[in-house]
Amino acid sequence: MKRLFDIIVAFVGLVILLPVMILVAILIRINLGSPIMFNQLRPGLLGKPIRIYKFRTMTDEYNEAGELVPTFERITKFGQIIRRLSLDELPQLLNVLKGDMSIVGPRPLLMEYLDRYSPEQARRNEVRPGITGWAQVNGRNAISWDERFKLDVWYVDNQSLLLDFKIIWSTLIKVIRSEDVNQASNVTMPIFMGNNDPDTEQEEFNKIIIIGAGGVGKGIYQIIEDINKVKKTWDIIGFIDENEEKSKGMLFNLPVFGSIDVLNDPFYAGVHVTFAIGNPVEKMKLIEKFRVKYPKVTSPTLIHPTAIVSNEAKIGVGTVVNALVVIEPHSYIGDFVLVYYGCMIGHDSMIEDYVSLLPQSNVSGDVVVKKCASLGSNSTIIQGIEVGEYTVVGAGAVVLKSLPAQCTAVGVPAKAIKFHHEMKVGMLNG
């Protein structure tokens, strides 16, 4: 019923307000130039990114360093009038017709706020964001973030068509009276930093997206969080997972995007990615395709604070080292290697690209583990052994003799029980 209500109100509103929108567009073109509208990614239902549209109210003025000047210097008197009358929000009627927004609901804030919400505050994303909302008619920008979020969550728990009618009517009254537009002397709300201190200075951190929202993704999320506990380094934007069920929801109050195509958006310029994929071959296939499509996107090396890594060891790009791992001197760990919890890598060993070492794998000194091999949990590779590329060592296996490529080996001592020649061929043809 609410969706039908939204469609009817948005359609009627567009028809009635079309002359006003045309007039506003002409005035913006005269006063501010081109473009007339701006668009931006904001969190929609369940935090999924949507692109909202608004009439432009500020100039694009830069300082001598090539940076945009502060908001209060860029907004003009004309822009203040547009904001005071809420005319800048009118293009969002198109967002309502598209199904991205509702007429009434919590306002869509910034994407970077998602991981700053408390679990209770994050509940505001359980409904579609709105053009107006309960917080807007109970203070708008004149109340604190904490008060605003409490009002948003109250609406989520008490929403009804009758309440929506009340909010729409109150909004019209407040727009006519120009009430609660600005907080104190500010043009907009202060930046939300996850606390109630509006004077907290915003600090820029490295944005990162985790590709894979399964168990490995959850583990890497925790690694990043533990790194941030020691020193705030990363701002986790969300996850990417093509699994339809996973991409419908959120994980750790962060959105799960359904495609890597989200990286095409300018909002994600400069973002880093980390690959949370346990299967070495699938990981390699995805990364090779990814590097062709996004050659400028980088993957950081992530090392848990409790890992013990020799200064004489070398670790490649995109590799993830989990908690309580020990890597001894003169070991070489290739690119995009996944080293799970509690693994031991002895001196002078070589772990080639895309290898996965599952929890508490024990690699002795002078061992070579070739590309795309996988070592099962609690497996042991004794000194001087070579494990062939694409080979899978089973959980608990003890490898006393070198293993050929493309086989599965299990037992104590480990023996090859089958070969999978099609793995490499399939990968190259994929």
- End-to-end Cα distance: 46 Å
Proportion of strand residues: 15-25%
Task: Assign an overall shape.
Answer: elongated
Mean pLDDT over all positions? 87
Number of domains as seen in the coordinates: 3
Please work out how many helical segments DSSP would assign.
9
Flag low-confidence runs: 182-187, 196-202, 424-430
Please state the CA-atom Rg, rounded to the nearest Å.
Answer: 27 Å
What percentage of residues falls in helices of 4 or more residues? Answer: 25-40%
What is the SS-derived class? alpha/beta
Describe the protein in words:
This protein has 430 residues and is an alpha/beta fold. It folds into 3 domains: 2-177, no CATH class; 206-276, Rossmann fold; 302-429, Hexapeptide repeat proteins (UDP N-Acetylglucosamine Acyltransferase, domain 1, 3 Solenoid). Helix content is 27%, strand content 20%. The protein is built from 9 helices and 28 strands. The strands form 6 sheets. It has an 8-stranded mixed sheet, with helices on one face. The radius of gyration is 27 Å and the shape is elongated.
